[in-house]
Amino acid sequence: MSESRKGETRRPYLTIVGWTRNDGYTANYAERITHAIGLLMRQLEAHRIPSELIVVEWNPPIDRPRMSDLVGRLNAPHTTVRFVEVGEEYHRRLKGWKERGLPTVAALSVGIRRARGQFLTPKALDTFYSDELIARISMRDLDEGCVYRVDRCDVQIDGQGWLGASDDALFGLLAGSPMQRHVRQQQSPQWKIRDLHTNGCGDFTLLSTDRWHQMRGYPEDTTVLGLDADSIALHAAAGYGAREVCWPDDCAVYKIVQAMTHNQRVFPVWKTWQQGLDRWLLELNQRDLGHRIRMLLDYPKRRVLGIESVLAPSIERNFVARATRFARNDVSRPMNDANWGLGDVLLPERVVSRAAWDAD
Questions:
Q1: Same structural domain, 150 and 274
Q2: With helix as H, strand as E and coil as C, how does 61-116 read?
Q3: What is the number of domains present in the chain?
């Protein structure tokens, strides 16, 4: 961190951490990302929020331009934009590396580890914050003892014509198009965990950066999958003492939906004996026992579409077991080691916008 003349560390109010890889994951991917980053910068500038955007460019393809080059230089007096590059050699450490070029969870932890803001949230770079959400953050009255959540709204817009729309026109289009709001859902009573707003929480979990560092970012995953990591992190925040605060409906994250949403790409993998055991326990009305057995024996495991080499643990083993510990405020098992987020590695950085608060 740079130091001010008074010897105090310069620190923005807000850090937003995103991830990217220019691999054509969706149609017009590069255009979508550059458009969304530009809109976000204009919002942060309009509300004069001292901010930094950290974009982790993970395992960039050698035959395509870097996203940092496509975004280019930005002029944002209140916002520093940093691209942090993670090379292929680190990606190859993960199971399934050949089948997926970008592990979201690992990339986010890299960004969180290097964040300087007082508060931090992850953000998918192709989503849009409502102006009401930015205005709420700009009040600068966030409590370091809280974790803040909002709903994500999936908006169905046909074609790519919106890419050329003005900011006002785009928000009008978002408001007037078919939409699915990911509202708070009650947790299964058999799970005996905190009732938190985990639905879509990977798109907005605003928490003090110190708390993120106390948690050591997102849970370690030796694969490229990162299943349940956003929900685990929210329960970890509560386990470490953060109180959940859900903001009003007009504070929202908008996502123009794609074909590859989570529910369409994750499938349970059952064995015959597991299905038989589950049916038998249900006939005996032994749901609690069935839940404990699933957690103990780790079934049904899960398959992610397109990643055949990796079989993920069951939701009971991967998520519920940890959330149960966090419900007891048991934080005795760190989610990562001391070098989480490649903290022991000096990664290349490129700054495409340097805010006044960050000036030498």
A1: no
A2: CCCCCCHHHHHCCCCCCCEEEEEEEECHHHHCCCECCCCCCCCHHHHHHHHHHCCC
A3: 2
> Tokens 């903290």 label which residue?
343
Could you tell me how many residues make up the chain? 360
DSSP label at residue 188: P
Enter the tokens of residue 305: 């579409």
Is residue 139 a part of any domain in this protein? yes
Q: Which domain does 112 fall in, by range?
A: 14-259+333-339+347-358
DSSP codes, 202-252: GG-EEEEHHHHHHHTSSPP-SBS--TTHHHHHHHHHHHTTPEEEEPPTTSE
215: closest CA among 317, 90, 54, 340?
Answer: 340
**Is 226 within 8 Å of 124 (Cβ atoms)?**
no
Spatial distance between the Cα atoms of 158 and 234, rounded to a whole number of angstroms: 33
Using CA atoms, how far residue 218 sits from 29, 189, 215, in Å, is: 25, 25, 8
Give tens-digit pLDDT for 265-324.
Answer: 899 999 999 999 999 999 999 989 999 999 999 999 999 999 999 999 999 999 999 999
The residue among 342, 349, 292, 336 whose CA lies nearest residue 317 is: 292
Residue with the larger pLDDT of the pair 161 and 351: 351
- Mean pLDDT value across residues 214-226: 96
Q: In whole angstroms, give the CA distance from residue 216 to residue 236.
A: 10
Three-state secondary structure call for residue 265: helix
Q: Share the mean pLDDT of the chain.
A: 93
35-82: pLDDT as tens digits: 999 999 999 999 999 999 999 999 999 999 999 999 999 999 999 999
Cβ atoms 64, 22 nearer than 8 A:
yes
The pLDDT confidence band at residue 117, using thresholds 50, 70 and 90, is: very high
Q: Count the Cβ atoms, other than its own, within 10 Å of residue 3.
A: 10
